[in-house]
Amino acid sequence: MSFLFARVYGVPGAQGSKRHVGGGRMIESSKKVGPWREAVTAAVIQAREQAPAYFEDAVRLTVTFIMPRKGEPKGWTRHHTRAPDLDKLVRSTCDAITIAAAWADDSRVVELVAVKVTAEPGEAPGCSLSIEALPPKEKPHGKDANKPRSGGRRKNDGSPHSRGDGGKRKSGRKPRPDECAVFI
């Protein structure tokens, strides 16, 4: 199984909305996205040089964003509950990992653990990220391998979710009044 770890230094930039600048051109609203993508790309490329890894199948991405301190009052918490949004930070980071050619596309991420914290005093902002290849899902074996695991027609079992017609009504025809169930 492949594994890759990288520590990125810099101010995390969220990839959010784009704004129209005329002539059919769109640019990122945040000025931090470009430098952040460059920092992530460089860190992942450096990590891949030390431990070559390319992820072709499903991966788990674990990322901890360390946000800069901004005059935290007494009694501050490590949880960073201010902007930028965590999902937008993940989006810009995944795109940078794609640019670094660690995977073909960020659709490979099927498990994601993302955390956003405020830096401790003296701690540099950035992120720690790890990418781990997941084992392939095993196919069922044995005589029942080709049978569907669940499903099939629902029978009239008297539950509030059954149609009440014994499963006999054909689609495309409206039910007769005596076939309709009314729940009060």
Describe it:
This protein has helices at residues 33-50, 86-99, and strands at residues 3-9, 18-22, 25-28, 59-67, 109-118, 126-133. Strands 1-6-4-5 form a four-stranded mixed beta sheet, with helices on one face. A two-stranded antiparallel ribbon has the order 2-3. The protein has one domain: Holliday junction resolvase RusA (60s Ribosomal Protein L30, Chain: A, 2-Layer Sandwich), CATH 3.30.1330.70. Helix 1 (33-50) crosses helix 2 (86-99). With 184 residues, it is α+β, with helices and mostly antiparallel strands. It has two helices and six strands, in the order βββαβαββ.
In a few lines, what is going on in this structure?
The protein is built from two helices and six strands. With 184 residues, it is α+β, with helices and mostly antiparallel strands. The protein starts with a strand and ends in a 51-residue tail after the last strand.
